Hints:
The structure holds two protein chains of two kinds. By secondary structure, chain A is an alpha+beta fold. Helix content of chain A is 45%, strand content 9%.
Amino acid sequence: MKAERITLSGVGAVLLLTTVAVLTPSLTLGLVDWHSAFELLLWGTTVLFATSALVWLVLTYVIGAGYEPPTPVHGGDDIQVRILTVDAADVVQATVDSLPATFDRLVLSTDAEVLHSRWVTSQAAAAFNESVYYPYSSLQFHVLLVAALLDNYRAGHAFEDLHLVATPSAAMPDQEWTAEAARESEEVEPHRTVLWSPVCALHVTGEPGDRPSASLGSCPARSFADTWSRLSRHPFDAGDRRWRRLDAQLRRIRSWSTALAYIEDYVAVYGDGGVA
Amino acid sequence: MTRIQQVLFRLESDYGGYPYHVTGNAVYNAIARRVDARTRKALHVSHGVFVPGEYGEYPAAHSESGYAGVLGKSLPSVETYADLFLYRDAAQRWLLDSRPRDAHNTFDVTRHGGRLAFAPSCWFGRPAEVRNSKRSVQWFMQCYLHTGRGDDVLPIGEDVLEGLRVGAARNYGFGELSVVDMQLVELDELDYSRVEDTSLQLELVSPFVLSSEYPGADGQDVPWWWETDSQVRRRETRLVNDGDVYTVETVDHGQVVEFVGTDAVRTAKNGVRRVGTHSRFGFGEFRLRPAAQDRVPARVPAVQRGEA
């Protein structure tokens, strides 16, 4: 047992004894004089706090005298601050004001469509999980799904109106998968496209039209497998072994961001052909 | 009296066949060459659904509740109608949320000179501070056998089922199965109280055949007792028999429609024994469930939350 724990237990026991002795002296059978017990408690507490203050003083000003903090590995030059809120000017200003003066790079995007196209095609964001506790999830698709929901809510759709829409890809072999290309492509719907890949594009929208779609249900849930298997038409050729295998795997995955990340990974590894 | 024999196999080698499930036709043909003519004629075989052996908890509709330990490696006893379908849904909703369930429930893909196959187990790394550096999750396959009325050839012995091979590249050792558990279930003795007197949804567990090139098979429409707002999704698949390939037009599995027929309990039993042509080979299996009880457990209808 450590010294501090022994001390604390001792003081706790004295406190308990004193309380009993002061409130109901008869319980201690006259063995303890409550005056002296109370005095002992006060002295004990005072000595404990005085000692710890003394120890702290010695550590800080005697032992730690002349300590220089190490230079940080990453300084202000290496850090970018990105402020994504664009609608509320006062919030943006308050955030900018609160930043330390060492930051000299501040990226402030005022065009939400540009932001969306960058997230859709981002390779860096795809490398991160939502949390270490969900190692197979994807930060990129989580953000895109949240953006799609927000855009739909702003357009006046309730959750039960929303659909997953899957459109087959019309990408040519020379298609570039950059943010600029995403903004030019007709397959990418601003804010609502959650996946843009060489095999299909997926959108979360309240206006499915006559495209292949399936309702998301009454409230948010980990329901990718169910929504995917209820799509009214298949976005890719399920006669091809490669895509049939992907389809079968997607019917097993319940988490949305995991499933979207799986499509992207599968297409990256097996999409080129050469396998059956 | 209708008995079914549930069988749980362990995947012993890579599987190169149909990725959604092992078709009843594949399992039937594997068994047929090992049994006598009478059994061969009487036997009906369901599609085999892949199940990972992992920790789980019983779903809400199940007769038991709470933490279930390791599921997928054995067949839990069946008391109610819903218990029949514990392993029959590819999403395997009993997997624990506290573990990486989507990774556990996704096959590891292996590559064999340009051909892809599913691995029979998947290895997971473990944190550096624990004793073992990795752990594996094994894959199992559950299917059930039954017979037409009047025939009694069940149970099929373990010696017959042991070592069956299914899927592609069987001659190269792919798709080998070993029996880990079997049990007989009497359909008439199950509890069907959850599907009586309530509005129901019908979920297709295996594809329903609309038309088939197989000689003598009649075409069928989508049954009148299925109601849906939009078109049901169709899919063309193939049935292979003695080297001949027949194209089969089906309603894709996983589709959910409203049940508007009568006599739900009898329909529920028929759904287990399957409907439509090719039902002997696993097609046309469905499950009824109360419309108020979503198959996604987290999705409680707005009415129940008091919002509507």
